[in-house]
Amino acid sequence: MASSEEEGSAEDKENTKKRTLSTLATAWLTFYNIAMTAGWLVLAIAMARFYLEKGTHKGLYKSIQKTLKFFQTFALLELVHCALGLVRTSVLATGVQVSSRIFMVWLITNSIRQIQNEESVLIFLVVWTMTEITRYSYYTFNLLNHLPYFIKWARYNLFIVLYPIGVAGELLTIYAALPYVRRSGMYSLRLPNKYNVSFDYYYCLLIVMCTYIPLFPQLYFHMLRQRRKVLHGEVIVEKDE
């Protein structure tokens, strides 16, 4: 009898611990998504105000870069969320998306100031802003169990147009950066050197551009499958690799 009671007590404690951890995880994720929604809303307002005041996109990136870099880098926490099992998203899929964004912000537009006024930069900034406001507000309301249908609809429909446009903006921006990278030799390591290693950032960017070819269709069609599942209730059977 004592043994049974002890086992029951231990099980109750374990269940209480799990509920506590679940509550804390939900609270943190709710805070995180509210903060990210607010951050991207601030960016959207700043971008709109700049354009209304200046009548041009030139100088826009410079005016918002600190806020952009902060919130886009803050998104690295999403990898931690996946790794800890707080969300059921694939670590690999999340890693590709987050790392590509950070690469665009820090190693392209931030590093090569000559391209910051390119129209392609404006394109991906607008797309990112619309996408992230929709995405983070969707997660927030979903966690609060009060998800308006229009946000759900926007989450699984806007990407059909926005995703290809955003990818085009990113590729055009990298392409615009190539001449400056080649002339300056930035981030490149030439032989001979004490490490006996050669690295050319110009060719690295060409390889990065090529990776969009296999990755874009995979991520895009994954979202289309999710759209059918969420909006139309289709049962999607993923094939084993």
Automatic annotation (TrEMBL):
| Topology class, membrane | Multi-pass membrane protein
Which keywords does the record carry?
Endoplasmic reticulum, Fatty acid biosynthesis, Fatty acid metabolism, Lipid biosynthesis, Lipid metabolism, Lyase, Membrane, Transmembrane, Transmembrane helix
Q: In which pathway does it act?
A: Lipid metabolism; fatty acid biosynthesis
Q: Name one GO biological process term.
A: sphingolipid biosynthetic process
Q: Which residues cross the membrane?
A: 25-47, 68-86, 158-181, 201-221
Q: What enzyme class is recorded for this protein?
A: lyase
GO molecular function (one):
very-long-chain (3R)-3-hydroxyacyl-CoA dehydratase activity
Query: Taking the first listed entry, what is the main subcellular location of this protein, grouped into a coarse class?
Result: endoplasmic reticulum
A Gene Ontology cellular component where this protein is annotated is: endoplasmic reticulum membrane
The record's subcellular location field reads: Endoplasmic reticulum membrane; Membrane
What Pfam families does this protein's entry cite? PTPLA
Quote the catalytic activity from the record.
(3R)-hydroxyhexadecanoyl-CoA = (2E)-hexadecenoyl-CoA + H2O; a very-long-chain (3R)-3-hydroxyacyl-CoA = a very-long-chain (2E)-enoyl-CoA + H2O
> Domain of life of the organism in this record?
Eukaryota
Q: What is its EC number?
A: 4.2.1.134
The record's comment on protein family reads:
Belongs to the very long-chain fatty acids dehydratase HACD family.
- Tell me, in a sentence or two, what this protein's role is: Catalyzes the third of the four reactions of the long-chain fatty acids elongation cycle. This endoplasmic reticulum-bound enzymatic process, allows the addition of two carbons to the chain of long- and very long-chain fatty acids/VLCFAs per cycle. This enzyme catalyzes the dehydration of the 3-hydroxyacyl-CoA intermediate into trans-2,3-enoyl-CoA, within each cycle of fatty acid elongation. Thereby, it participates to the production of VLCFAs of different chain lengths that are involved in multiple biological processes as precursors of membrane lipids and lipid mediators.
| Protein's name according to its UniProt entry | Very-long-chain (3R)-3-hydroxyacyl-CoA dehydratase
Q: Which organism is it from?
A: Pelobates cultripes
